[in-house]
Write a structure and sequence with these properties.
Shape: elongated
Helix content: over 70%
Distance between the termini: 97 Å
Mean pLDDT: 87
Number of domains: 1
Low-confidence stretches: none
Strand content: under 5%
Radius of gyration: 25 Å
Order of helices and strands: HHHHHH
Length: 165
């Protein structure tokens, strides 16, 4: 075997090593991407769960949320502020979920449930009344998603709003 043959053989071995290294890096990147998506989704679930738990553990706030969701106009001024602050927090989370979906960071099957939940909340009469003066606080894409893909109020979950007597 000549020196030239050894040189070419070493080049082939180097090229193969490079290909194997690139494959390994690709696998690592894919694994990291999946881990990042899982962590992102868990963070979203945690934020919504925390919001829901905080509301559920406070009877007064739960009643306010139910009453306001049925008819925002029936709320007293302080209650409107509370309702608004609750919904700003909720809809910021919703907007984040929408953004993550648009960035393809949320699996389509998972998105279906989130999409329904957002549109169901948005379909409630009191939430729609709250939304009108708030809408410009949200991105145009998110506004369009909610406003152009509504659920009818008859398809909205009735347990989210208490009807005031």
């Amino acid at each position: 075997m000549s020196l030239e043959d050894i040189y070419f053989l070493s080049q082939i071995i180097s090229a193969l090593a490079l290909v194997v290294s690139l494959l390994f890096v690709g696998i690592q990147i894919r694994h990291n991407t999946m881990s990042t998506q899982t962590a992102r989704h868990q963070s979203i679930v945690q934020a919504i769960s925390d919001w829901s738990r905080d509301v559920a553990l406070n009877t007064e706030i739960s009643a306010l949320l139910g009453k306001g969701s049925a008819n925002f106009e029936l709320l007293e001024p302080v209650q409107r502020l509370q309702f608004s602050l609750l919904h700003v927090a909720l809809f910021r989370n919703y907007e984040n979920i929408y953004y993550q979906h648009e960035q393809r960071a949320i699996d389509h099957h998972v998105w279906e449930g989130w999409s329904y939940r957002m549109r169901a909340t948005f379909a409630l009469p009191g939430v729609r009344a709250w939304w009108v003066p708030q809408r410009d606080s949200y991105s145009e894409a998110f506004r369009n998603f909610l406003e152009e893909n509504p659920l009818s109020s008859t398809n909205a979950p009735t347990h989210l709003a208490m009807h005031a007597d």
